[in-house]
Design brief:
Order of helices and strands: HEHHHEHHHEHHEHEEEEH
Number of strands: 8
Number of domains: 1
CATH topology: TIM Barrel
Radius of gyration: 17 Å
Strand content: 5-15%
Largest sheet: 8 strands, parallel
Strand order of the largest sheet: 1-8-7-6-5-4-3-2
CATH architecture: Alpha-Beta Barrel
Shape: globular
Distance between the termini: 18 Å
Structural class: alpha/beta
Amino acid sequence: MPASSARRRARQLARHGTVDRVEGTTPALVCPLVLAQAAEIEALPAGHFLTDPTKLANGLRALHGAFGTDVIVTAVADDLAACSLAECAAGAAGTAGDPVAAVTGHPRVAAAVEATRRLAATAEDAALAAALCGPAQLAAQLGRPPDPAALEDCGAGLLALAKAFLEAGAHLLLVVEDEPLSRAAAGGWRSAVTPLINVARFRQAAAAVVLADPADAALAPRGAVVCLPPAAAGPGQGIALEADPAAWPASTLRRAGVPLVTSLGPVRGGFAECRAAVGQLIAALAEG
């Protein structure tokens, strides 16, 4: 891969919502949400791995080399934000009532942000991405209904996370909703997500909204690349694969103009299984 081509294409995605083919690469930015598999490389339990910025950065760099993707993902839309906000609600470390302080001070967040900062300086052949669960998914993880108050609170916590990753050097921000959105919550959801997209654009990073339900695409804020399941994605839209790599439909990925391929949450499976699936995915995209 030509040096920095992935970062250049991320800048193209941020500015134009599309990417150009570069000789020797796939036309799309390939960004499945793989992270836990790097713990196998470092031979560490997940809890230790995710809170050690040195091990995390080294493991993600090795994972990038093994998988051959364009993007290193330092947050994968898992329970990171929920753990942070739950700790805040419990009043841990004197952060009760202050979601901004909680999410940026949580050990997992601190490690992921620091790993992003280090990789931004050292992994010049890769773009860096932070994927956060959307406000509706976060509210569900916290056991709250998707009402305006909950979505506003979740949006505030996610905005603090987004700023931290972007300031550390992330080139791509993804907001992931792995379940259909409630029609009654549509306005509150859009209000909560719009600042996330705006802060990414302010930082000249690409922003994507990753949705399980194609009917929700109309709610995506302006300036975000919309990623939908393969059968539903239209021209110029990204693709949101299932979390199970065994379900990735390679034949439907052979199409022109796909700017971004990601997944609806953390990719499941071990290192070997995911490496094989990602390799097949890249090969299918290269034929598009």
